[in-house]
Amino acid sequence: MPEPRNSFLDYAPAPESTAILHLKKDYGLFIDGEFVDGRGKSFATISPATEKHIATIANASSDDVDTAVKAARRAYDHTWSRMSGSDRGKYLFRIARLVQERARELAVAESLDNGKPIKESRDVDIPLVAAWFFYYAGWADKLDYAGLGAAPRSLGVAAQVIPWNFPLLMLAWKIAPALAAGNTVVLKPAETTPLSALLFAEILQQAELPNGVVNIITGAGDTGQALVEHPDVNKVAFTGSTAVGRAIAKSVAGTGKKLTLELGGKAANIVFDDAPIDQAVEGIVNGIFFNQGHVCCAGSRLLVQENIHDEVVERLKQRLSTLRLGDPLDKNTDIGAINSREQLERIRELSDIGEAEGADRWTADCAIPENGFWFAPTIFDNVSTSSRIAREEIFGPVLSVLTFRTPAEAISKANNTPYGLSAGIWSDKGSKILAVADQLKAGVIWANTFNRFDPASPFGGYKESGYGREGGRHGLAAYLEGAAK
Amino acid sequence: MTRLVVPKTYKLYIGGKFPRSESGRTYEILSPEGAFLANAAKASRKDARDAVVAARAALAGWSSATGYNRGQVLYRIAELLEGRRGQFVDELTAIDGQSAAAASSQVDAAIDTWVWYAGWADKYAQVAGNANPVSGPYFNISVPEPTGVVAIVAPAGGAGTAGALLGLVSVLAPALVAGNTVVVIASESAPLSAISLAEVLATSDVPGGVVNILTGSAAEIAPWLASHADVNALDLAGAESLDWIDLQVSAADTLKRVLPPLSGIPSPSLDRIVGFTETKTVWHTKSLV
After folding, report:
1. d(Cα B246, Cα A77) in Å, to the nearest integer?
2. Contact indicator for B184, B172 with CB cutoff of 8 Å
3. Which has the closest alpha carbon to A88: A136, A145, A149?
4. Chain B contact set for A464 (CB, 8 A)
5. Measuring CA to CA, how many Å separate A140 from each of A145, A211, A460?
6. Backbone phi, then psi, for B41, in 5-degree steps?
């Protein structure tokens, strides 16, 4: 046991009970309203914090994908596209309420399967899931007012592939607008985090959502590829890496499938010398260490004005030294487990490269549990703009610190990336914030805050961070087309 | 004794100047009866790259101009085109073989298209953006911004129907409204009115480099623009007869925004403006008072 460094930081363990979960040993594919066996080789989902087995998950073969798409097509043709908007909305309201009712159970399942701290799944992920369904439920009978002209039309069957960093939240971002707009769905969760999507399928059964309107199929990349390339799919929505996003953009070229892509990022978090430093330090921590840095819009590049660099970095180190890393289910935990061994390897590799390329590495001194996948919060100082840790998405709790002298230099460095998903600006001067925000090529800009999400607020990137928006009125446009002219 | 006419040399329009193709190549443009009309410049890969450089350089100024200012500049194009109506009608009659009435209505439509889009420059953001009622003490607003450098394959419409001038204007004007800069490949078979339009642009208030017009083989030039890393969006409106799926695949390498080919000439629409914009959402904290 490590010696306690600071007595006020010693907390008794306060684990959230897993007794609320009633997990099955095996989960099938959710197709046409029921769980069925998959024809691929099933796989295990494990807890990244303990590496312990949670459940066995079915693997959808391309035949299973076809079955799911056919179910979605039938449901679209015979049920969902004919239903009134107000009835579609009522189903979505039901789902929102059921998510709220089972919120604690979903939060525990999410933290167990994903490794994120329970305080995040409980206070951020799951409440936003309910909010997302509630927000889009109200749109279902108001599509005439969505700014797409009168009587916009649904697209048909939507193929949706989501990542492992916010499993149930990404599901909500995809399914809620798709159903509100009148589409049916085949969704594939990430292979390392299928659990909450399968519990969500049970919620759909409780909501008595008509069979086939939402189908959830589990599997790895080949399942996702078979889904997005299925010829009877009208819409593809993907959140994940830029490399896979490129491949999907190529595969749908010429097919007429509507495509939205939510890809990688390398966000600049710009701190001016007139910023409220206390809040900025909290914002920097939230920007890159929230969800272990497994956030596409994470503020992974800190751009700090040169004259306050030493103070900010010193305070940041102090603050990081108080973060508690460990059991995701413990209510006191700040930093949970890295989602997978593969991701941990990538974080380690890029961090080693950062060190080899000359940046100064600092890692918070914290005890690392014996089992599971962990990476202590790490800061790289004196990072050059050409360094790989300043250019590539690490997707982990690793912050690169760069400096600037003038706003023009900050803007130029912030935009010096093929990505353009998000950015942060910290200053007490409103006019400066607005002027800088105008110049940043990023789809979401947080001023004096970071990593805020809301169903009413559009989210999505410029440049190679993808295209299309999720959330808000703009998010509906991704699932509708204008009325026939 | 009849007067000997002074024919025009048709060149490219890049960065506000009229260079010949750096390749030195030209191709013959013939009248519908087969008579020689002009040697049009046959743009090369280098010309396309030069055009992208010019468009990128012009982007900061054009995109940061006020909507009111961009609207006036686009309206000024309509004014000058109106002043040169006769020239364009004559040219379309002689070159494209259109009847005087068809040519006249095409020029009218082109002028009116500039006027329609000019009026959007200081309004489209009010229609395409909005305030977002988020749950918390935040000011939150979404606004559209120009995507950047847009490469366009211009449509010419069906034979004898609408024509190359209107086809070009119908894709060029909407891309400019939001503040994008453009590299456009004119109709290969009917490129001359595009270069005459460039003369209008050059003498209106459009800053050099905001519009760059290439003539020549779209099949040869378009792939270089589709794969160019400094092009942000690709409008394949007039690419129906090209291997446009290959162009779309190539554009995916840098995740360009792509508008698919269409048959005929697009009618004026807000969608074509918004199609080349990015929605930026800005959150700002509200303090407790």
Report:
1. 33
2. yes
3. A136
4. 254-255
5. 11, 19, 22
6. -70, 140
Quote the Cα angle for A367-A368-A373, to 5°. Answer: 160
Residue in chain A lying closest to B128 (CA) = A147
Q: Which amino acid is at A316?
A: L
The answer to whether the CB atoms of B135 and A454 lie below 8 A apart is yes
- From CA B272, how far away is CA A271, in angstroms rounded? 37
Contact between B252 and A452 using a beta-carbon 8 Å cutoff: no
In a mutational test of the A interface, the residue from B123, B134, B286 whose CB has the highest number of chain A CBs within 10 Å is B134
Residue among A132, A239, A250 with most chain B CBs within 10 A, to mutate: A250
Distance CA B109, CA A192 (A): 57
- The chain A residue lying nearest B236, using CA atoms, is A254
A183 within 8 A of A158, measured Cβ to Cβ: yes
Residues 449-478 of A with CB under 8 A from B: 449, 452, 454, 456-460, 462-464, 466-467, 469, 472-474
Q: Which tokens is B19 given? A: 């260079």
* The predicted structure's pLDDT at residue A8: 60
Closest Cβ–Cβ partner in B251, B280, B285 for A449: B285
The catalytic residues of A are 262, 296
Q: What residues of chain B lie within 8 A of the CB of A454, using their CB?
A: 132, 134-136, 140
In the predicted model, what is the mean pLDDT of residues B90-107?
90
Which chain A positions have a beta carbon within 8 Å of B136's beta carbon?
452, 454
Instruction: Give the H/E segment covering residue A410.
Output: helix A407-415
Q: Are strands A153-154 and B233-235 parallel, antiparallel or unpaired?
A: unpaired
Residue A98: predicted pLDDT: 98
Distance from CA of A320 to the nearest CA of B (A): 24
Per residue in A7-62, pLDDT tens?
566 788 999 999 999 999 999 999 999 999 999 999 999 999 999 999 999 999 99
Structure tokens at B78: 């309509």
What angle do the packed helices B192-203 and B164-177 form, to 10 degrees? Answer: 40
Residue A426 contacts B, CB cutoff 8 Å? no
Partner residue opposite B142 with nearest CB, options A442, A466, A474:
A474
Residue-wise pLDDT tens digits, A46-105: 999 999 999 999 999 999 999 999 999 999 999 999 999 999 999 999 999 999 999 999
Helices (H), A41-116: 62-75, 85-101, 103-114
CA B79, B80, B81, B84: dihedral to nearest 10 degrees? 130
The answer to whether A249 contacts B132, with C-beta atoms less than 8 Å apart, is: no
A256 touches chain B (CB under 8 A): yes
CA dihedral of B248, B249, B253, B258, whole degrees rounded to 10:
20
Contact criterion met (CB below 8 Å) for B222 and B241: no
DSSP A216-231: E----HHHHHHHHT-T
How many Cβ atoms sit within 10 Å of the Cβ of residue A452?
Answer: 17
pLDDT band at A1 (very low <50, low <70, confident <90, very high): very low
The C-alpha of B9 sits at a distance from chain A's nearest C-alpha, in angstroms, of 38
Rg (CA), chain A: 22
- What is the pTM assigned to this prediction? 0.96
Contact across the interface for A452 and B257, Cβ inside 8 Å: no
Of A79, A26, A31, A55, the C-alpha closest to A201 is A31
